[in-house]
Design goal:
homodimer; alpha/beta; 13% strand; transferase (chains A, B)
């Protein structure tokens, strides 16, 4: 029997949130769907690169030819969960021209003057693009809930608004891929310690990260509510064990591959007369 | 003596436009500064990737820590010159999070209602970013001149306006890297033929490309004027022989490396008390 590292076709399903999902008992150090360890994950990610690259180019070509489909990758996770690494090592595998990345921090004054989805709608990917949200509208039911930035009835009402909003996106042709990277409490502690230890990582550290860490249990509860209330058939959540960064990157690459494959795109038909153009070109010969 | 492929430190200087530069006699199949052939260029580009990656991360860290420097890569070239390939294979070497890519096509109605630099100013990279312009304000003295989209006195006045604008950018902390990719007439013909031959390339073809090809000599003249009038000490032009795509990519990667090195950035100093934060983190241990 072959011991070749490989990725199970069921990986995506194994990561998908289903009825009764329990975050508290979720193993953040596991590697579901992967035959092989962390370095196998790294090797497989290189292979995924070629696959993703062609699929993405087809999506781009589709958009350039009047097509309306797009993909939106929503990345959520607490500090140090590895969102930046996903952008760098997974999204970085494809042509940057076909990608639009937006990160959502504390809302500006202008953003606060509008409803919480306003800034999100403005950042949606154009047809033919892969949009990436580094944090997203889910912050409005995570930090907003934990830090009581708005009254309970306001954040309470947002879960349904989010579901409606995403249904609208999907109906308009966007495949919505929702990913929550979940690190363990211990691993987060080690990653923060590394940022404090290494001068080349200081810029990634923010004293606010400790304040958030002190609210760990509240955040876990808020995430559980997100999974319970916004994992819909049209836009399910995928929860990724993220203590092993390389596994997490491979898993997200597979989710992207499947999202792109689900579009089932082919190269666009020429909208000009190929034979006539060949003649015109021939006539330019000097 | 070693036959190892290598890149000369003088490559950049060899490509820089100087007094008396003559586009008509420029060899578009040459590989100045490269010891080795096309496949050597490909190997060296992989090495450049690691160098670029770290330099770009330092720039990003700088921006995240209140720094104001940025890099703007201006890409010009006729159809099929390889601008898209530069974005994909060179810009694609770095973290997409630190890059903003804008391509400038036919101006929209809103853009036409403003002066020609209006849409350009709105697309400038934020501090800490590498901005990439796929076509740029130079279209306003290229296609605008060749196709007489504006009267001669209008495009005539633009060279000085462009120089002033770029001087302003440089004074504000942006390194401006101007790159013109130059293919030969024959090579352009072959690349257009390939786009017509291969159904997976049809989407890249536009019948307008032949119209532009028919104005080849006018475009060469317009490019010569661009080099004569806008290659300034603060923002010089680099003309890249682009018949060999792999050489062109390597050359542009080297220009980017040098631009980033010229910023001479180090990792930002912590703006918090490292020892105190270590204690706060330690106190979160469970």
């Amino acid at each position: 029997m072959s011991k070749k590292p490989s990725l199970s076709h069921e990986l995506t399903e194994q990561l998908r949130v289903r009825e009764g999902f329990d975050l508290a008992s979720f193993d953040r150090g596991a590697r579901p769907g992967l035959k092989g360890g962390s370095s196998a994950a790294e090797d497989l990610l290189v292979e995924q690169g070629g696959i993703l690259d062609e699929l993405q180019e087809k999506l781009y070509a589709h958009g350039r030819s009047g097509g309306t489909r797009s993909v939106l990758l929503v990345l959520q996770g607490l500090d140090t969960a590895g969102k930046g690494g996903i952008v760098r090592h997974v999204v970085g595998l494809v042509d940057p021209q076909g990608v639009s990345i937006r990160s959502f921090g504390v809302p500006t004054e202008e953003e606060r003057a509008h409803d919480f989805l306003w800034r999100i709608r403005r950042a949606l990917p154009q047809p033919g693009r892969i949009g990436v949200f580094d944090r997203s509208h889910y912050e409005d039911v995570l930090v907003a809930r934990v830090d009581e930035l708005v009254p309970p009835d306001v954040w309470e009402s947002r879960y349904d608004l989010i579901n409606d909003f995403e249904a609208e996106l999907v109906a308009a042709g966007t495949v919505v891929v929702k990913v929550a990277l979940m690190v363990s409490y211990e691993e987060q502690g080690e990653r923060l310690a590394e940022r404090l230890e290494r001068p080349d990582k200081h810029w990634k550290y923010n004293p606010g990260d400790i304040d958030t860490r002190l609210r760990w249990d509240d955040y876990q509860e808020a995430y559980q509510a997100v999974f319970d209330r916004t994992s819909t058939p049209h836009a399910p959540w995928h929860v990724i064990p993220a203590d092993d960064k390389r596994y997490a990157r491979l898993a997200v690459s597979q989710l992207l591959v499947e999202a792109l494959e689900s579009l089932d795109l082919d190269w666009p038909q020429a909208d000009f007369d190929v034979a006539a153009e060949k003649e015109r070109l021939e006539a330019t010969r000097r």
